[in-house]
Amino acid sequence: MGSGDREKKTGNETWPAPSRLLGLCNNFSYVVMLSAAHDILSHERTSGNQSHVDPGPTPMPHNSSSRFDCNSVSTAAVLLADILPTLVIKLLAPLGLHLLPYSPRVLVSGICAAGSFILVAFSHSVGTSLCGVVLASISSGLGEVTFLSLTPDVVARPPGGRRRANKRVCHPLARHSIFLSPEHSSGSSLSFQERWTVFKGLLWYIVPLVVVYFAEYFINQGLFELLFFRNTSLSHAQQYRWYQMLYQAGVFASRSSLRCCRIRFTWALALLQCLNLVFLLADVWFGFLPSIYLVFLIILYEGLLGGAAYVNTFHNIALETSDEHREFAMAATCISDTLGISLSGLLALPLHDFLCQLS
């Protein structure tokens, strides 16, 4: 083995650590905006730009005529501001984002992330804060399609997997057993027919991921705000933050569990997440759960399902696509979670208005 091969091997082995760090930083602004959605919509500003968020244990209803203690605007509004720009970026990415070098993409992503925090922190109105959330969405969407396409080895890393893929290139996701020579195509020059063939094979993974993310974000931004317990020492804002924190904890744990457990049939995760949605929606309507701690457990479980669906979907795709098609497959599948989240936000807005009108 020559020195060039040794350097290349060393580089591949050391790449996962910075790639994981970039992924963590990329999602930070997106997650913070969603976790602060209740505060963004309910905070009041005074002179000197001082934020008044009630730190006390006593809940302060915004709408005393409703048993849900509703804000005038649903937290789904923050969700839509945080996801629609990402959806646009992901829809356009497979068509030509590869023509833009990685360095400018990372720079723009970082500038938008910093700008989002500055704008939200110093805003005096909900509208200005939502503009900051939009910047966070641009940062997250551009960063995800950039970093995810660079890290197939981090998702899969099967021993010798990439060496075997170089010997024989195939379209296992398309279920047609089409074998091509490695010189046939590259990630940046796939024909329309090749892209369409790969995309059809990806539907086996795309559809359940859309369903999983629709269900869990309908819960997160449509029901969290309405799962309000008055018989607890936590204020409404504090309850909402705990919901978001437990959800993210579950996601973090399950996204880190791939070495322990691989799930091939992600449809099962989609079904379980839909059952979570139905159960919590029934509780919002009938109020049969006696304790907030039961909701805490359900939300932690919800996060576990969501994280498992995400990491197993991309792990399976990384294993089943050739080197030439992997970047396109990753970028195309990125649309799944964003599409599901966008649909959930659109439906959560009228649900909020309907339920908050109930006495």
TrEMBL record:
Which biological process annotations from GO are given for this protein? lysosomal lumen acidification
- Give the matching InterPro entries: Battenin_disease_Cln3 (IPR003492), Battenin_disease_Cln3_subgr (IPR018460), MFS_trans_sf (IPR036259)
Per the record, GO CC terms?
endomembrane system; lysosomal membrane
Q: Does the keyword Transmembrane apply?
A: yes
Q: Name one Pfam family in it.
A: CLN3
Protein name, per record: Battenin
- The membrane-spanning stretches of this chain are 106-123, 202-219, 265-286, 292-311
Write out the annotated subcellular location: Endomembrane system; Lysosome membrane
Where mainly found?
Answer: membrane
Q: Topology versus the membrane, per the UniProt entry?
A: Multi-pass membrane protein
Tell me where on the tree of life, at the top rank, the source sits. Eukaryota
What the record says about family reads: Belongs to the battenin family.
Report whether Nucleotide-binding shows up as a keyword of the record: no
Q: Mind telling me which SUPFAM superfamilies this protein's record contains?
A: MFS general substrate transporter
Task: Provide the gene name from the record.
Answer: CLN3
Keyword tags: Lysosome, Membrane, Transmembrane, Transmembrane helix, Transport
Q: Where is this region: Disordered?
A: 45-66
